[in-house]
Amino acid sequence: MPLELDHLFYMVEDEAQAEAWASALRLEESYRRQHPGQGTTNICCCFNNAYLEFLWVDDPQAVASDVSAPLAFAARSAWGNLGTSPIGISIRHGEDEALPFETWQYTPSYLPEGVTISMARDSDDARQPLLFAPPGGCRPDSWTGDRAVPLNVAELVSVEIGVPAGMEPSTGLIQLAELGLIQLTGGQLQWGLTLTLHQPGDPIPTELMLPIW
């Protein structure tokens, strides 16, 4: 299978902000999940082919552990004060499909034994978006059984990453743009995320922009 966008996350302060932002974007929650040992919780809003995740820190001790610390969730959650990036970009790929960035293997305790997540090495810099690739994966509209969730029925057709002025995008980010998986727009005040959705029967695309002020 070709490389595809699996999901995107944007870090928020807490559960209340996650719910408020989802409501402001008129998105229905599909599910939420806690990540034991990683120290984060999310609210996910699923589209046909991908999903948007609002992610926050709920256990500062866990995010500072030796396992989770390289992901810099604490620093990323303070993006408004530190100038870090609150954005995560997850890539869906086949077992034999090479990723467009050098990786290391992340082994959080909430995953089954032997399962790892490939993390981009140049995402170790918290000023850059976190790029990663979970094992396997498929479109939300093909999830079945216990995994099936309510969908915000729309197709994600493009993702634009707003890059702060003076910030050079990481090599991995540039490679994703060259593959056509994302678009990069420079000269922004801070890291921004714009999703363009196509709603069935609606000729005018819908844009979702983060952060929300």
How do the strands and helices of this protein lay out in sequence?
Elements: E1 4-11, H1 15-24, E2 31-35, E3 40-46, E4 51-57, H2 60-63, H3 73-77, H4 79-82, E5 87-92, E6 103-106, E7 117-120, E8 130-133, E9 155-164, H5 171-178, E10 183-188, E11 192-198, E12 206-210
Parallel strand pairs: 1-4, 5-8, 9-10
Antiparallel strand pairs: 1-5, 2-3, 3-4, 6-7, 7-8, 9-11, 11-12
Structure description:
An eight-stranded mixed sheet has the order 2-3-4-1-5-8-7-6. A four-stranded mixed sheet has the order 10-9-11-12, with helices on one face. 37% of the residues are buried. It has a single domain (4-153), classed as 2,3-Dihydroxybiphenyl 1,2-Dioxygenase, domain 1 (Roll). It is globular, with a radius of gyration of 16 Å. The chain has helices at residues 15-24, 60-63, 73-77, 79-82, 171-178, and strands at 4-11, 31-35, 40-46, 51-57, 87-92, 103-106, 117-120, 130-133, 155-164, 183-188, 192-198, 206-210. With 213 residues, it is of the alpha+beta class. Strand 2 (31-35) and strand 3 (40-46) form a beta hairpin.
Search tags:
213 residues, alpha+beta, 2,3-Dihydroxybiphenyl 1,2-Dioxygenase, domain 1, 8-stranded mixed sheet, 4-stranded mixed sheet, 5 helices, 12 strands, globular
Low-confidence region ranges: none
Number of domains: 1
* String of helices and strands: EHEEEHHHEEEEEHEEE
Q: How would you characterize the largest beta sheet?
A: 8 strands, mixed
| Radius of gyration, CA atoms, in whole angstroms | 16 Å
Structural class call reads alpha+beta
